[in-house]
Amino acid sequence: MPADTKLFVCYIPGLDRRRVDEQTTPYVHSLLQDHPSCRLQAIPSTELTPTLLTGVGPGKNKVWQVSIKDAAPLSPIGKLISLLPEMVTTTAQCFMHLIDNTNDLSAVPWWRRRQFNLHRMKYTRRETDPNCLDEIGGYSSILKQLGPDDAGYVFCKRFADMEHGLTVFPREGKRLDFVEFYGFDLYSHWHLDQMDMIKEKMAYVDGFVKRLHQRCKDAGVTLILLVDHGQEPIRSSINLKKVLKNSGVPRDEYVYFCEVSAVRFWFKTDRARTRITKLLEGVDNTTLKDHKQMHKVGICFDDIRFGELYCFANHGHTFFPHDFYNPLANLFLGITDSLLRPRFFNARHRGNHGHLPDHPAEEGYLILGDQGYDVAGEKMELTDFAPTVLSLLGEKPAAHMTGTPIFTQASLTQQKAS
Ligand SMILES: [Zn+2]
Description:
- The protein has 16 helices and 21 strands.
- The protein is α/β, with parallel strands linked by helices.
- The strands form seven sheets. Strands 7-8-1-9-18-2-20 form a seven-stranded mixed sheet, sandwiched between helices.
- The longest helix has 24 residues, at 195-218.
């Protein structure tokens, strides 16, 4: 690309390629037909932005929910708190979260939460403090590499933010604008059982991309449409907490952390390891992976601090109740946030992603709004995104970004061939 290239990354998670078609989303459909594009393989996580921006996976940037720590012995007051019903401690924690939203994971019962180090990059943090994306786990991101004058990140949650975005984006002077439009993914999590409503929003998003692309063209900026995953409708939920409660294994012999799509375990006795593993093998619609098997799906930790054994819900299923669920907090969210309204009636997700990767819901795509490029491969990894952006801008990726740029200038390829 010429030295004065400018890029606008329009990041729309959840815009599932299986539902992109000529009728619902004619513009994105046509971009996929006649512009350079590549399929994108996600990792089994709902937090993909840190990997996209740093070019290294969770094994390095460490954004992987929680790790286990040696919690201090319980004080006499701690012993009393640990005897309280879980509902009492989680509700108190949720109220504390209302006052101070850095009090994360407030729906996790106190006796388990005190055993965790937190390694999360919530969207609320990205929204209020975009600088937290400069360096993640000690790895610099593409934003830091380009510097604050040349590159910027903006988080947009509401559909109204998209409309406003069409009056301000692309921003003048930026070589890289990276804008995350999160609203559609959030909406899909709670409405994927109502396909007519999803299609209506998809049609809006399609028109938005069309108008944004035109604004980029007018400003001499190249658009990249980035979708890093889709979503699968949820058919049933699995009550793993009940299974564990009935296991007969005392709760102080193991620790677990239950996300919507996966539960991870650490065992403190062989009895707990053997009994619970056997029990999990019999739970329908789940798949077990130990921490070494997770390396094959892009989650490479050297030890078991971030999880010893993982139980994944298969696509179309989730765990419920999970560690983000508190009945009162759920009602509060259902009432106060219009994107989450269906929570009020039923707290179970309607669509989800972040399960094991062998499924189309865990696949996204990248489209380059400039036809003068060739694509180096059919499918890219999340870690290829950072070097791809930097190479389009004529910049050398940082040493830790070991992925491969996937777009090459067509004229160069033709020259090589001749
Ligand atoms: Zn999501």
